Amino acid sequence: MDNLIALLVAAPLLGAAVLLCGGRRLDKTGHWLGTLLAGLSFVIGAVLFADMVGKGAEDRALHQRLFSWVPVEGFQADIAFQLDQLSMTFVLLITGVGTLIHVYSIGYMEHDERRRRFFGYLNLFLAAMLLLVLADNYLLLYFGWEGVGLASYLLIGFWQHKPSAATAAKKAFLVNRVGDMGLSIAIMLMFTTFGTFAFGPVLSSTGESSEGMMTAIGLMLLLAACGKSAQVPLQSWLGDAMEGPTPVSALIHAATMVTAGVYLIVRSADIFNAAPDAQLAVTVVGAVTLLFGAIVGCAKDDIKKALAGSTMSQIGYMILAAGLGPIGYAFAIMHLVTHGFFKAGLFLGAGSVMHGMNDEVDMRKYGGLRKYMPVTFVTFGLGYLAIIGFPGLSGFFSKDKIIEAAFAKGGTEGWILGGVALLGAAITAYYMTRVMLLTFFGEKRWQPAPDPDKAPGVEPGIEVHPGEMPHPHESPRSMTIPMILLAVGSVGAGAFFGIGDRFVKWLEPVTKFEHGHPPIGAAAITSATVAVMVIGVTVAYLQYGRRPVPVVAPRGSLLTRAARRDLLQDDFNHIVLVRGGEHLTRSLVYVDHTLVDGVVNGTAASVGGLSGRLRKLQNGYARSYAVSMFGGTAVLIAATLLMRAV
Amino acid sequence: MNPVNYLYLAALLFTIGAAGVLIRRNAIVVFMCVELMLNACNLAFVAFSRMHGNLDGQIIAFFTMVVAAAEVVVGLAIIVSLFRSRHSASVDDASLMKL
Q1: Does residue A261 contact residue A228 with C-beta atoms inside 8 Å?
Q2: B32 — contact with chain A (CB < 8 Å)?
Q3: Fold observed for domain B4-86
């Protein structure tokens, strides 16, 4: 069984290699090959899972060592895999959702002439992401971490002829770079502290080092997680990443890659357990992002950007839970999995709507679509109920547990974190209801298709005739089936995981688990969660369900306008980082010109001046040369005599 | 006679020759002064040979004469051709080798 682990990664990697090197002759069949290999990876994962379930809880972890990557004295880096319960959860999520999204993309990308390349990139992403979660040391994890960053960059900029997509890809890459620096520094710190970066030795000897060092490593890991998971302060790339094709947004920027930060923190649980300050920083980042994403999600009229804000916010919940320590790790991962289902489903639904509406993304130009796209409406609706935490659906089980755990943190912190999480739940209900009402209910506010010359943002591949009214239709079966399966997951996963603490028991050998004791009863918290959810839905209904919605967005309050601009994140980055960087470089150039160049030029000038003087000695008069010869000889003789005398 | 006196004479001749090389401009005179220095050296060699009672100094004096004769051949030829091209035998006029 151990030997199967490498095959998990090898299958999509092979697909990527064949599809990207195979050339045009694979244009007709490439998407089937890519989907097949993703499916194969899922089957292998399922076989390994069945095998793992059959064993006792303690000896479920599998290891496979392929070869020594960097065999140097005192520096051992192996290509070695570790498959424990945590990795297994991710493997099933990645390959399962990944395969569904491959199937969906067959229909979604049907008219795109670069579909083969798209599937090659998707397979590359799967391979890198599996490498990330299967690595048994931080260096190999880093390799996968960079690999998913690369795949994300390639896929965001897949329609690179659109300047906005090309810019968004570069932005995502650059912001991720900042986080990646954190991860590489953390790995270096681990190596200097422990002499290794394999999970086993590092995580079992965290007690031997000082708390300060653990805090430093923890904060660097948090920086890495912020970059990859779009948490404040490195959140600015996620909204723009929606420039990529919608299946990419569903797979990479909702279900899997952006949750890699949560994986990193939960995987490094022992380091964070030994560093309470770093843990506090994690919870603060989570809580801030939770509200940040939710507020942004409320103001966006672009359906994908609203969902992106929601993703940010939900990952904020996970990071918050991961910062709570052993009372939260399992719930962070549980929310991650249920979120993977319902958010991927919501994105696929959004893609389906766009598919039927001439690639219009502005929700104010939708309306009344529930009659025209029944399957999309039902699956999207189930995902909606799941994310707002409607009792019985999956979001209810996972989010409620996180809110409980936040209260159970204890003291003032617990009250603040719990209050923020509750507030976030209310805002979630508000903005998701808004999305739902704007898209599927109300009057038709459809607009004729824009002239593609004037609106270069239209996704290519689908023929758009300027001035034509959209005629929404249900998407082909290859798109609806993945949506239906994900909707089933959104409905059932929570109950399956949550009832009887099944998921917690499954993860307990890896992440440990302590039962948190909130200061108020669990039942009270659950009712509060449901109550704020109802309030959020009601407010949204009063605002968007009872009144006709204007097609052009009203000016809005100061907060709304700020939220439309992503709470001024780009302005902040521009003023603080871009301008600051410019000033810094300008002052460095000044120092270079005056100080460095001054020293260099001064040296050169003084040497030049001195040699100019010395040059005068070469006057061409034989007699003056003779003088210097006589003088030199006289000095030599005098020196010799003097030495003799002494 | 005390051989040291010969050394004094040699030193005097050498000094006269050196001063002539440094001071005079006429190439012929400079040349003669160089010969004077060489002969001062020969005189010193011979005097030392006498003082120390071996023949090394006298043999070296012969070598010096041979070298001086060869030098005179080459040197005079240079001076004559220099005079032909520049109509001057002044060493200061031949100062082209400078920056």
Answers
A1: yes
A2: no
A3: Helix Hairpins (1.10.287)
